[in-house]
Amino acid sequence: MIRVLLADDEPLVRTGIAMILGAEPDIDVIAVVSDGAAAVERVHELNPDVVVMDVRMPVMDGVEATRRIIDSGPVDGSTPAVLVLTTYHADDAVRGSLRAGASGFVLKDAAPDELVSAIHAVAGGEAWLDPAVAKRLLAEFKGRPESPLPTSEQITRLTHREREVLVLIAHGLTNKNIADYLFISEATVKTHVNRLLMKMGLHDRAGAVAVAYRSGLVAPDEPMPPRQ
Predict the structure, then answer these.
(1) Domain's final residue, options 139, 172, 206
(2) pTM of the prediction?
(3) Mean pLDDT over residues 108-112, rounded?
(4) What pLDDT band is residue 92 in, cutting at 50, 70 and 90?
(5) pLDDT at 209
(6) Does residue 159 share a domain with residue 129?
(7) Taking residues 134-138, what's their average pLDDT?
(8) Is the same domain home to 100 and 126?
């Protein structure tokens, strides 16, 4: 069971999200709060697995709340993953949340099943970056030579299957989604992910998404590749 704490200052939004998540058999919404300060306090009391955090709230915004939750370290042996909710594709708050340690972003107008998938992903230790957010962030990073990226030689070292996995990561699929899509086991997908990250000198899936777009393996608004 994934224990979720929800923080959003809009009553209708948080009620709707709580209802969506409450219908999932493996998600338990253990608390609902209306500001970042309350979120930090309740995290220390309840130790949720995932905090779904609105980025703009009174008293304390989602960026500062995320920072305090991550910086405070484990509670009862674990640190919650923070999944940020935003109405903006990319802005200072999104970038600030990423630097503060958020595990992913979901737009408020995303489909309910996307939010559920994102919660499963970050609860499992993966990153989740909404494709629309990723494209806007990548556009800002273009032309920055100081940004470390894999060389073309490193990318060509990837096997055909590793490239397939990289493309699907860029489309926002979790390891389980990729396994179903490619008709392989989830353990095999994890192996491919670990190998492609290692070959390209990357630390996380967010970096893999950036490489996929910037290298041309995936283009903005490009549809999912057909199943083989």
Answers:
(1) 139
(2) 0.63
(3) 89
(4) confident
(5) 85
(6) no
(7) 66
(8) yes
* Domain region containing 152: 143-214
* Same domain membership, residue 157 and residue 123: no
Residues 83 and 187 reside in one and the same domain:
no
- Is residue 77 classed as helix, strand or coil in its secondary structure? coil
Q: Give 69: exposed, middle or buried? Use CB within 10 Å, 0-12, 13-18, 19+.
A: buried
Handedness of CA 116, 120, 121, 123 (dihedral sign): positive
Average the pLDDT over 118-130 and give the result.
82
- Look at the alpha carbons of 156, 137, 73, 24 in this order and tell me if their dihedral is positive or negative: negative
Let me know if residue 131 belongs to a domain: yes
- Residue among 174, 159, 181 at smallest CA distance from 209: 174
* Interstrand relation of 81-86 and 104-107 (parallel, antiparallel or unpaired): parallel
pLDDT at residue 54 in the model: 94
Dist. CA 228–CA 222, nearest whole Å = 17
Q: For the chain, where are the alpha helices, taking DSSP H only? A: 11-22, 36-46, 62-71, 92-100, 112-123, 131-141, 152-156, 160-170, 175-182, 186-200, 205-214
- pLDDT for 180 equals 87
The total domain count for the chain is 2
In the numeric block, which tokens belong to residue 23? 């219908």
Q: Based on the fold, state whether residues 122 and 148 are members of the same structural domain.
A: no
Q: For the chain, how far is it from start to end, CA to CA, in angstroms?
A: 34
What local confidence, expressed as pLDDT, does residue 147 receive? 47
